[in-house]
Write a structure and sequence with these properties.
With 417 residues, this protein is an alpha+beta fold. Helix content is 24%, strand content 35%. It has helices spanning 2-29, 102-137, 143-172, 346-351; strands at 44-46, 48-71, 76-80, 88-89, 94-100, 185-188, 193-197, 205-206, 217-234, 246-251, 258-266, 271-273, 276-285, 297-314, 319-321, 324-330, 377-387, 391-396, 403-405.
């Protein structure tokens, strides 16, 4: 009977000691008011095994592969405009007729008058030369007179050819010199295609294209049989793509329709777009659908290298510190606020372990309140691999299941967003 009683007393004592240990542990976790301590208000996510694929997404526009802006060589008023946007035109078809301004009309008139004068001089010199040649053959005039008539004829012939060349150049630009008293310029289509834009109206004044003037666009003709997508890829992503790489294209107007294609061109030099350097890229579509329209917004997705079943974390959980990449790993338990003092004794305590010679980073928060986040997070260097738009591969420095911070805990709360 006494043994049973002693046994129960031992069991009761063990239960009391265990309860006291649990209460002590709970007290260490509390802030002194019986409430559990809370760390920084930062979202965390566990590292996991998943596939990672490089993906480049950009917004571009649907454009015809070949399009030509039609302009006038001369400035003047639009007096005829027989085409509209959407019209199908053939090469050489009339697009517009331009009546030149006064100064250019005078220049054209001078060219025509010069040609007519050259023709008259040539006929007169030819008749004079032929008449004097007969007289010279009959011995009625001297050699000098015959030679002067021949020289005058050759000069008149050269001047006539120069005048004809000038007239030919003017007529090649669409201005018929012969029967055109108003000197009206005919603007014709340079290719077969469709008029996709006509920014001018009948009666408007246009500026001719020249060495110092870009000129007014009368219309734009394009070959809609070959369409492509043009986009500007940010310079940070240009290393992730290459020629002949496959791409997927969707349209804002038809989000469920997917077009496939390949990268057909990457610009060799960057350009500035809103203070950002981008490279122009063209995507040749495999098939054309009736949904495609010039100028439509196209959503471009280019998929690159893929790594299967690797350790991944969100890209926003990796922070760059100089030349290193860091993550903040959530501790299983926060570090205690106080540490037990160790007894000092002899050379053994003086020499100690290397870790006791100086406080580690994990203990620095005890002297600097700004470092208190180290109680909950371990700052750790990692080595990363490829990254998608949402996840990044972790090659070294992290284990599966460890939780990482999605914001920088070393920064004040107001600077984390």
């Amino acid at each position: 009977m006494a043994r049973k009683k002693r046994k129960w007393l031992i069991i009761a004592a063990v239960v009391v000691i265990a309860s006291a240990a649990v209460a002590y542990a709970a007290l260490n976790k509390s802030n002194g008011n019986g409430e559990e301590e809370k760390g920084p208000d930062i979202p965390n996510l566990a590292a996991s095994i998943d596939d990672v694929q490089v993906v480049v997404r950009e917004v571009g526009t649907v454009e015809p592969e070949v399009k030509v802006e039609i302009k006038s060589n001369l400035s003047g008023k639009v007096v005829d405009l027989p085409i509209r946007a959407g019209d199908v035109v053939k090469k050489g078809q009339l697009i517009a007729r331009i009546e030149p301004d006064v100064n250019q009309a005078q220049d054209l008139l001078a060219v025509r008058n010069q040609g007519q004068a050259a023709t008259i001089n040539l006929e007169d010199a030819k008749q004079d030369y032929e008449a004097k040649r007969k007289l010279f053959e009959n011995g009625l005039i001297s050699v000098e007179m015959n030679r002067e008539a021949e020289t005058r004829y050759r000069r008149a012939l050269q001047a006539h050819e120069e005048a004809r060349d000038k007239i030919g150049l003017v007529e090649a630009s669409g201005v018929p010199i012969g029967d055109n008293p108003r000197q009206v310029v005919n603007i014709v289509s340079p290719m077969d295609g469709v008029i996709i834009d006509r920014p001018v109206e009948l009666g408007e004044t246009v500026t001719g294209s020249g060495s110092f003037n870009a000129g007014t666009v009368i219309s734009t003709v394009a070959d809609l049989g070959t369409m492509l997508v043009k986009a500007g890829i940010n310079e940070v992503d240009i290393g992730k793509i290459h020629l002949e790489q496959e791409a997927r294209v969707t349209l804002d107007a038809f989000p469920r329709v997917v077009f496939t294609g390949t990268i057909s061109r990457i610009a060799p030099a960057a350009r500035l777009d809103n203070q950002i350097k981008v490279f122009d890229v063209e995507i040749a579509l495999d098939e054309l659908g009736h949904e495609l329209r010039t100028g439509m917004t196209a959503n471009l997705e280019i998929r690159g290298e893929i790594r299967e079943q690797v350790l991944t974390i969100p890209v926003e959980s990796v922070f760059v510190r100089g030349e290193e990449e860091m993550v903040y790993v959530l501790r299983d338990e926060p570090l205690p606020k106080t540490i037990e003092s160790e007894e000092e004794g002899g050379e053994e305590a003086a020499e100690g372990d290397e870790s006791s010679k100086a406080e580690s980073d994990d203990e620095s928060w005890r002297e600097d309140p700004r470092q208190e986040w180290r109680r909950w997070y371990d700052e750790r260097r990692v080595v990363t691999g490829i990254a998608s738009t949402s996840d990044v591969e972790i090659v070294e420095g992290l284990e599966d299941g460890e939780k990482v911070a999605l914001a920088d805990p070393s920064k004040p709360q107001e600077e984390r967003s």
